[in-house]
Amino acid sequence: MKNIFSEKNPIIKLLTLICNLIILNFVIILTSLPIFTIGASLSAAYRTIYVINTQSNPSIIASYVNSFKENFKKSTVVWLFLLFGFLFVFSDLYIIFFVIDKTFLFLQFPAWIIFFVLISFILYCFPILSCYDYTDKHLAKNVILISLANMPITFTFVVIHAALLFIASSSLYAFAVTLFFFIIIGFAFILYTFSTFIFNALNKCIREE
User: Fold this and answer.
1) What are the backbone dihedrals phi and psi of residue 160, each rounded to the nearest 5 degrees, phi first?
2) Which domain holds residue 11?
């Protein structure tokens, strides 16, 4: 009977992980509401996921808050830069598709390349910021090297995000189900799943430096 409630029991470990991710998802949403704090939220989330994977009884909220405060300045600067980049790309795409003549549709390709680069930065820069203290120049260099060295993973992550957006926009029911999933556990679950690949890529890159 004791073994059933043991921390080593796979079912108990799974239930504990789910509870931790639900708590983490709540604080991610709460701290991301101002929009400009999303970068700090992502860094704190990745750091907390690292704590979840390495400690037996992690304090989710305490770990998250400490990391959020520690990385707030640098993560916010990086996020605002990326946000400006996305606004620039979306503005370009809007002009290309809806304003100028259709003969200039080929101009969309540079915009999509920039969009892919920005997505790559989002995927890798915040996990790096959560664990390593790099200068902006060193951070950009590592993000580029890691994203290129792990192009299949990078491309897969981009496709998964695009697929989620497509599914959510396919119908009102799909949107409601997707929204409910993300409100309860979705953000934390996706970051936790991705962190397995991302942290492995980071560790490999850091060892090779």
Assistant:
1) -65, -45
2) 2-208
What pLDDT is stored for residue 3 in this prediction?
Answer: 58
Pairwise CA distance, residues 26 & 18, whole Å = 12
CB-count exposure of residue 36 (10 Å: 0-12, 13-18, 19+): exposed
Decide: 206 and 127 in contact? Cβ < 8 Å: no
How many structural domains is the chain composed of?
Answer: 1
Helix axes 10-32, 187-208, angle to 10 degrees: 100
Could you read off the pLDDT of 69-113 as tens digits, one per residue? 998 988 999 899 999 999 998 898 888 888 887 787 888 888 888
Cα distances (angstroms) measured from residue 174 to each of 75, 164, 171, 178? 32, 10, 5, 6
Query: Taking the model in full, what pTM does it have?
Result: 0.84
In whole angstroms, what is the distance from residue 165 CA to residue 153 CA? 19
Report, as an integer, the average pLDDT of 110-120: 85
Distance between CA atoms of 146 and 143, rounded to whole angstroms?
A: 5
